[in-house]
Structure formats: C-alpha cells, structure tokens
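Journal club side-thread
Mid-discussion, someone asked how the predicted structure for our own chain would compare to the paper's figures. Pasting it here so we can look after the session.
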Amino acid sequence: MTYAVDDDGFAHADTRDIFPELSDEHVKCLQRYGRQDHLTMGQVLYSRGCDDFDFYFIRDGVVNVYHQGNPGDSDEERIVTAYGRGQFTGELSLLNRQKSLVEAVAQTSCSVIRLTQPQLRRMIANEPNVARIILKAFILRRLRYIRLGLGTVLIAGPSTGSDVVRMLSFLERNDYPVRYLDTNKKGDLGTLSSYTVGPSVRWPVVVCRPGHYMENPTLEEVAGCLGLIETIDHDEVFDVAVIGAGPAGLAAAVYAASEGLATVVVEALAPGGQAGTSSMIENYLGFPLGISGHDLASRAQAQARKFGARMVLPRVVDSVDCRRIPFTLQLHDGEKLRARSVVVATGAHYRRLDLPELARYEGNGIHYAATALEGSLCGNDEICVVGGANSAGQAAVFLSQFADHVHMLVRADSLSGSMSQYLLTRIEASSGITVHPRTEIHELRGKSHLEAVGWLNTETGDSHLHPTSNVFLMLGAVPNTAWLGGCLETDSNGFVLVGNDVSNVSAFSDGRRPAGMESSIPGIFAVGDVRSGSVKRVASAVGSGSIVVSQIHSVLAARQPSVGRGI
C-alpha cells in the first residue's frame, strides 16, 4: 500500500495510476536491464537537487520520499510518499535528466532492482508494456508535485512585471514546479527576509538552491541552476538535428528516434512552439474534447524522450554551416553541435505592430500568448485580441472566461474568410466577445504598464480610445529563418522552399531533385510553419514532421547504408 500525503496532510489511497504495483512479468523485464541491490535502513537513494540518480524497483521494504521545504516554509521536511513492495521510485526528472525535486531514503532495509538512467531509457524504448505504466506514473507524479507546490525554484517579483511573466511562462511551459511570491503583497515579501533582499533589487528574484538568489537572471542561467541544460558531447555526430520543438519538430523527433536514428532537438524556449501557447485545440484528430497546446507538447516531448531523443533547451541556434557534412550548428552560448542531417522546424512568430511605443509595453500589457498565466492577469478588465485567424479565435474564446469583455480587432471585413467555422460560431454566440471589423490599433498609452489603446476604423476613419491593460497580438506569421543566414533558398516572404519549389539545385551533384521536404541544400529539410506553402494547422505540422523522416532515411542511406534501422 502506498500512502500519499495530500494538501491537508491526510493520507489517501486512490493511487493506482500514480503509484502502481508491477506484476511478476514486469519484474522479470526489469531484471533484464538492471541489477539486484540491497539498501540499508537510513540509506539515501538520492538527494533533492542531484541530477545523477537511479530508478529503484522495491522487491521488499519501504522507501520514504521527503520534501525538504521551500524558503519560508514552516515545515522544513515532510514525507510526500512511502513506496512499498512492488512499487518504484521516480518521476519526470529521472527521464528528462533534470535535478531531483525530492529526497528518497530507505525507511527499512530493502531489496531492490536498480536501473541507471541509460538502462531505464533503454528499457522504456524496448519494453512497451511496462514502459506505458512507468511513463504514465512519471507524468502524473510530476503533475502532483506541481499541485503540491514541491518546487525547487522560487520566483519573487511584481505580478505585472514583464520579466516575472517571462520567467514564470518559461518554467510553467517546461512543466517545472515553481513557487511564486507577489512582491506587491507584503505578506509574501516577508518570505524573502532570510535572503537579505534589498530595496534596489532587480526583479524577479529567483531562488533555485538554499542560501543563494539571482536578480533578474536569464532563462539560460535559471535553466543551468535547475539542471535543465543538456550537456553536449563535442565529439558526437547525430543522425538528425531538429531545430525547433513545435508540433512539426516534435513529430520529426518521435519518428526519427523510434526508427533508430540518433536524434537531438534544440529549442530556444519550451516544447510546443507557437501552438504550445494555445489554450485549446479542438479540431485535432483524435481529441473530440480538445487538447491544450501545452498538454500536446508535453506528451510529445515525453514520447520523443521515450525513444531516446535528446532535448537541448533553452538553447538558441545562431547559425548553421551548410557547406560540409556533417553540418555544424553554432549555438548562442558558444557550444557547437554536429549532425548528418538537419530538420528546420523553427516555425513562425506573430507580427509586431508597427508602433514606436510597442517595445516598452511588450510583457507589460502586450502579449503574444494566451495561456492560463496571461488569463490570470485579465480579471475585471476589458481586453483586446488583435487578429482574425484560428489562433486569435482560440485566444478570444479562452480569455472570455477571465476578462469582463473581449474586443476582437480584425483588419478584414469579417472572420469568415480566415477562421474555422466552429470557432466562428462560438464567437458569434458569445455575449462576452465583440468583433470590430476593419479595425486597427494606432496608439498605445500608459506609464510603466499599458493603460489604454486607440483603435481606428479604416472604413469610416472613426477613432476610439479604450481603457485596457492587456492586448493580445495574434497577427500574421513571420518565419523564424534569420539564423539560416541565407544558406537556404526562400520565397519572397522568407519561408523555406522545398521539393519541386526549389529552383537552385546546384548543390545536388548527384543530379536528383530535392525530396518533398528537402531544401536547396541536400540533407537539410524544412517542416511545419517555416516551410513555404504550409497550411498553418497543427495537424499539418505534425504530418510534415512525420513524413520527413522517410526522406531523411533515403538521404542518409545513400551516403552510408548502415545508418538507422529503416522504416
């Protein structure tokens, strides 16, 4: 029996999915990959904050899992879970090569089967029956840790601060438990008293280990402190490097890794890309009740890791040397990564308003995502959503649950030419959403934070100044291709040309034409929204990411027939 402590400190036993017991057949499977071990009473299996720890299946005995308290907690240490006979330790930190969020200690002498992280990943990739149980438990345990507030990172700062929102968004989109203190509330600020935070501190303050805090750190600094940054072996050459972890990139990673190709994914922020900020995707095949972009990305990332794909984030690719194979990718932090093929899946970003005052309000009232984090800022406020495609419609419907009213500002005559019918019907039926056709924002006002916007009806010339503290920009797509440095042929809008659309085939010395997703450089492919002529839909992006792997196999096999297992 597993005893899990809930928010009120009381034990509950509804734990069959979170804390399953493995069958005898599952145990035999674990024995083939791990080794028998014995733990003495009081032995520490792993400590909170360590990033090199093992998976333990308990054949006999009890292992306690402790939470050692966040800064300001009255209880410095408490038991979170007690694992018994037939159960196993671990959650997503073990699979993601991240630092442990908790400490595990043998309560009694224990007989265990112990798997190192490489052994665990190999077992998960090869044994689907037991892997399904373990992965489901890992995901549910991480969600439980987030619900219980068992984070190893504390963020403090004003809730309206752009850097606070940036940091919270990064950690939440990466499913990392976080504790947030709003410094506008005096009670919360007192929690930081033990850290002697002065009045001139640069918010946000981030505490990721006891006795030390950082002032307004970069995402890379926080990721490094939390152990989120993957180490790159300079001598390693990957079969496939996927740049971007949106739906297309994640699909390419899943299929490539599952078919035996050594795969690495490089992502600048968090899995999901632009789709990861969508509150609800309702027209994606197989999800009749819809699925959030965040949930879809989280599942896809776990799936890619299951098959052995490496996830390198938050890392930015500055350039690619496409003159020789293996291709060399130069990362912003100075690291280099080499691969025999490259999948460009960097997608596109929303256009910015052509207003001189825009930059000062980005993160201070101007948003490019509509998740629960941004929605929490919209209470008792009339907000604006700018744009007329599906992303804007999804944002308007979602944000109407939080805001007093949503004003959709659309340049076109109506939404019917650019939005799916199900969203259009929902918007028309909502009393909390008003659509303003032929309307554009021409003015932003406010001191440190946005306070009002001026919009203009382009047909009548009528201007209106409307008080609001939050505007969501969901405008047309701009490809994220600047890092390519002109290496690949693009269309007039900067999207990568592939297949029959490529006009310059001089690099193809073997006389062949580029494959369907292949660019003007042999071995470099483009999928998802970054590809010229792509349909800006999640299903289309996933489809292109899946299809490209067969083309990668063909290219690699022509160079080196032994690469990969084939399809």
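Post-session note: Confidence is low (pLDDT under 50) at residues 1-14, 562-567.
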